[in-house]
Amino acid sequence: MAKFRICIKTHVTAVVDESSNVMECVPRAYEISKNYLQSFHTFDHPLKVSTVTMVDSKGTRVPNLGSNSSSRSSSISLLNDPLLLTLDGTDPLSQFARQEQELIDPLTQMVSEYETFQKSKTKKRDKDINLTDDSFNWNSKRLSILNKFTTSEKLSISTSFLSVSNVGGTGTDGIKVHTVVSDKLKFRLEQLDDFEDASIRHLMDLTQQDYIQRIEQLNQELVQSWHNDQRVKALKIAIQCSKILSDTSVLSFYPSQFVLITDILDIFGKLVYERLKQKANSGPESSRKLNTESARDTCQNWFFKVASIRELLPRLYVEVAILKCYEFLNECSYEDILQRLTLMIRGIGDPLIAAYVRCYLVRIGASVTSTKEYVYNNFKDFLTVYHMIFAGSIRSELNRQRVDMTKYLSLYGPAVNFILQAVAFKNNLYTEEILKQVKTIKNNGPILMAILQAFKPEFVAAHALEIVSLLSQSHTEGISKSQLFRALGLSMSTCAPLCEERSVFLKESFLTINTFTDPSEYITCVETWSQFIANNFPISEVNRLLNEIILRLSSTKICEKHFQQLHNILDKILQHQKNIELLLIQENFLPFLDLFHKDSVKLEACKHILTIYKRNSHEHTTDPVVISALMYIGKILNDSLTALTVADEKRQISQLISNFIRKVYFGRDLECQLSFYVEARGTFSNLDTVYGTLVHNVNKLAMETYNIVQGNHTRKTRAYVKACIAFSFITIPSISCIRQQMNLYLLSGQVALVNQCMGQADACFEAALNLIAELPSVLEIDGKMKSMDSYVVSYLSNMLATIVIVPDSPEQGVLYLLRHLLQVIQKFPFAAHSFGPVTVYLNALDMLYVQSLEDFPYHITGVISNDELYGRDPKFLNEVNNLCVYVVEQILQQLKLLGAAQLYKMQTIFSLELMLRIVRYANLNKEQTFQLAINLWSLARKHESLLDPKHMVSSTVCDES
């Protein structure tokens, strides 16, 4: 190895002494000097399965023994060759074909499986929908009730199953084991009769969380008692839970209390029903009739037990809980039973308690019958006692509990809404009659609210004018008109009235809405109507609405309280306005935006506008008013950025503004297009990404000009293109990222070169090369530190490929840009033992060889490159050869450094690369050049074991050379 190092070192000295004689580029006529391989005709496919014919010892061929013979076949397939495997049916395509013949191809099988999965999924979804329809989506309602109706007051529970010493226990105290059936029945009757008030314990001063935990314990106690064969105890728990619903000492919590208790009753009813069903269907088919009779008798016993409950409320709740069990009593009719229970509810004096009993009856009744007569009767009964809600006794209780009428009326909402939903479910059989009855009722605000929330929007839209009249005339304590009209606006957003009625409907509605003097009531109501207006009315109506809002909320203090409502109005208008550009040019749009006095809220609104514009706008924008409005919005975002703004915020804003800039297009009006970019550069001065977008768009503008004139610039178009290049050249230094500057300089220089602006191209290339020395060796990219060596190598390789066709400047000398590039390589701080410099120098040798050719491999129309400029002038070629000598010298120095660092593998690779270039490019008739190639080859062979064999030429061939 030392010998080869000495040879190279000696050769480097010779290069310095005889620089003009060592490396002389000689263009090769490869098409002439090619040595073609000998060709011959063949009649067999090279991948055809080969066969071997077996010959016996006598020299005769072995006959074919047929497909059944395995040991003496006439031919043996040579399947060990991987290429031959492709023709024996084992390749993927052949497998697919065979599967299609035998069974089914994988794609069809996947489609079949997917269709089966989709059918099962659709079937399950339809089943879920039916279940949801049958229960009127009670699960979602119960969750909303539990979240809405809460309390901070102390609660109490009266029960005999949650003593302090027995909470969470097994609940088996006092339970005796009875083996005789008669004794067991007798004991159960005694248990049911032994329901003394003295045994009930009162748990007082419970928080809401404690109360819920106690209810859950009752639930667990009921289930555990049932599974321990303690049916009477389970019934007593259900009865006591039902009695809890008679407690209205904490009114604000009553709806949640109803949900918690009815959950327990639902479980009790399910346990009873499943038990009876199991009893009726158990055993062999021969005894099925006897089992059915037994289940019928047991069912009657359950209803007899329920009928023996003295108090009305628990008797009603428990019977409704096991209502489904009536199917085991064949002579019973659900319609008659539901009507009977409806009449029984009339005995409950408290209208709130009665309303929720009716709600529970309707919910359970919907699971056993589709008739609606009992539902309608329940609602009529509620209307009959509706006046009691405003009676003096109720008001006294409200005063005692310090609950206002608004809060109290809201307690009726879940129950009344559910009843009305049941009435309107699947058909409008009784809805017309209900609407007529509501007209005659005094203080009908809560019922109108329930109608708007429960009835289908289509029904409300069909009676829009009638309902508006009712809402305008409604005067109910605790229910404001703003609440009613807000509910109407929500319904109208889903389904609008007939086209011919919309204008009258909107006018009549806003005659009342505009009378709201409280800004909170007004803006909350308008928030729901904004979607309806944006969806169904021309832009002029939206503009009028914005003007009304501006007049109402002109005060700064008022606006600060309603930023969320204003943002919701803006969002609904933007989401449902079909032509976003038409909205932007309205005279009241930007003044409406100015209502967002708080900077953070205004910035969110501006970002939202640009986001919607990005998604819903046309491909291009030319309207100057639209552009001006978007520039104003973008400037607000740009001016909000500071040194403390996070990178993600800058990135988001930059993308939105860049999208807007890309959509502005004036067609053939190139002057106007460039003027817009100039204005945008001055407006968005804080965003590097936006500056990059502007440079790209201006370069694109220059290329559009080039395409318009088809490369033949006039005096005017040439001046315009130069102005575009000048714009880019001036804009790029304002970008803080050096890497982005370098990329844009190179791109702008290439655009200038295509447009035959040589001076501008040279300036861009020179500026790009000057930045290499300023580029840090390591940059943080996506949160990780990354070396810039590979980027610099790729960038300079791109630059070398570009400056191949750049003609030399008369003022700068021969191959000025290449000389400059070779200088800046040494200024960049490559990592220790980096392979970057060697790679760039090798690419520079390629570029110098092209410079020695008579015709370059590629040109740009209208640009006279060095091949035409010099015409292989000897002085020019001498300069090229001198640069080749310098580059080879730098490569040899890099090879020496790699050897000193014991990086023998990379030294071998680059030695081989340099040798190949010398063989291809240089004049090997020169003794020193030839000797340098031999030395490099020997150096490469020294460590050829470190390389893949395909990277090395056969040593035998080289030795012969």
Automatic annotation (TrEMBL):
Alphabetical GO biological process terms: endocytic recycling; protein transport
PANTHER family, A to Z: ESOPHAGEAL CANCER ASSOCIATED PROTEIN, VPS35 ENDOSOMAL PROTEIN-SORTING FACTOR-LIKE
Organism: Glossina brevipalpis
GO cellular component terms, A-Z: endosome
Name the UniProt record assigns to this protein: VPS35 endosomal protein-sorting factor-like
Keyword Nucleus carried by entry: no
Chief localization: other
UniProt keywords, alphabetically: Endosome, Protein transport, Transport
Family: Belongs to the VPS35L family.
